[in-house]
Design brief:
By secondary structure, this protein is α/β, with parallel strands linked by helices. The chain is built from ten helices and seven strands. It binds S-adenosylmethionine. The site of S-adenosylmethionine has 24 residues, from helix 1.
Length: about 270
C-alpha cells in the first residue's frame, strides 16, 4: 500500500472514530422511549439536525444561495445525521447523503425512517472516493467537512466528477480568513492531526480545474453570536468540559479574525 494511501486511511479512521464515539443511535432511542415525538422540523430537530455553526438556519441560507432545488438530485457530502438532506427533501429535491462515520449514517437512517422518508439514500463513504457515477447529481453541498480533509483538491475533483456541468457546489466550512494564532483542540478534531484549515483562496485554487466561483460570504458575526448562544449560562446545555475547551478555542479564533465560517458557491464548468 502506498504511504499516502495508508496515511489517508489513518486520518479517515481517526475522524470516524472521533465523531462516532458518542452513542448517538442509543441517545435517539432513549429520547424516543422518553417521548421524543419525532418532530424533525428545524425547530424540533435542533439536537439531531446539525453539527455546524448556525444550525438549521445556516442550512436554509446556504440552500437559498443555490439554483432552484425542486426536482433536482443533490448530494450532501459529509452529511452527518442528515439534517441538511431532510432540508433538501422539504424543498422538493432528491436529497442524498454520504458520510465517513457509520454511526452518523445509522442515525440519519433512523431519523429518516421516523418521518417516513427513504433511509436508503444515506451511505457510508469518503468525500475522496464518492461511490457514484460521473454527473450523477445536479448539485452538491458540503457543510463543515473540509476542516477534516487535507486533500482539498482531491475532494473538489470528486465533487466535480459527480456534479453535472452547470451544477452548483455549495460549501459552508470554517476557513482561515486572517493571520493570528489558532489554538487546538477545535470542535471537529480530537487532535491536530485530523484538522486541516485552509483559506477561501486555497479552496478556490483547489477547485479551479472543475469549478468557477460564483459567490463567497464570510459569516464572522454569525459565528461569534452562535457560539455565544451555545454557551449562554442562562440556557445551560449538556456540553462536556472537553467540548467547552474546543468551543472556547474556536470562539477566540473567530474573535481574533483568524477563522470564520465561510459560504462559497461554486459552479461546475461546462
Ligand atoms: C462537523 S461534522 C458536519 C456534519 C454535517 N455536514 C452537518 O453540518 O451537520 C463533519 C462531518 O464530516 C464527516 N467527514 C469528515 N471527513 C470526511 C470525509 N473524508 N468523507 C466523508 N465525510 C467526512 C464526518 O464524519 C462528520 O460527519
Amino acid at each position: 500500500m502506498a504511504a499516502e494511501t495508508s496515511e489517508l486511511w489513518e486520518v479517515e479512521a481517526r475522524v470516524a472514530a472521533y465523531y462516532g464515539g458518542v452513542g448517538l443511535v442509543e441517545r435517539i432511542e432513549e429520547d424516543l422511549a422518553r417521548g421524543f415525538n419525532g418532530d424533525l422540523s428545524p425547530e424540533g430537530a435542533r439536537l439531531y439536525g446539525s453539527f455546524h455553526i448556525g444550525g438549521a438556519e445556516a442550512v436554509e441560507r446556504l440552500l437559498d444561495a443555490m439554483p432552484p432545488l425542486a426536482g433536482q438530485a443533490v448530494l450532501d457530502i459529509g452529511c452527518g445525521v442528515g439534517g441538511a438532506v431532510r432540508a433538501l427533501t422539504r424543498r422538493g429535491a432528491l436529497g442524498w447523503g454520504l458520510d465517513l462515520t457509520p454511526e452518523f449514517i445509522a442515525a440519519a437512517r433512523k431519523l429518516s425512517r421516523m418521518i417516513g422518508a427513504d433511509p436508503a439514500v444515506f451511505e457510508v463513504g469518503s468525500a475522496l472516493a464518492l461511490p457514484y457515477r460521473d454527473r450523477a447529481f445536479d448539485h452538491a453541498i458540503m457543510l463543515h467537512v473540509g476542516m477534516n480533509v487535507a486533500d482539498k483538491r482531491g475532494a473538489m475533483a470528486e465533487a466535480g466528477r459527480v456534479i453535472r456541468p452547470g451544477g452548483a457546489f455549495a460549501i459552508y466550512d470554517i476557513m482561515r480568513v486572517g493571520a493570528g494564532e489558532v489554538t487546538e483542540p477545535l470542535p471537529w478534531a480530537g487532535e491536530a492531526e485530523s484538522s486541516f484549515l485552509d483559506s477561501p483562496g486555497a479552496y478556490a485554487t483547489a477547485a479551479a480545474l472543475w469549478f468557477t466561483e460564483a459567490a463567497r460570504v464570510t459569516r464572522s458575526e454569525e459565528g461569534i453570536a452562535f457560539l455565544e448562544a451555545l454557551t449562554d449560562p442562562a440556557e445551560p446545555r449538556p456540553i462536556s468540559e472537553a467540548m467547552r475547551e474546543k468551543i472556547a478555542n474556536l470562539d477566540a479564533a473567530f474573535r481574533s479574525g483568524a477563522l470564520a465560517p465561510v459560504e462559497m458557491i461554486l459552479t461546475r464548468r461546462s
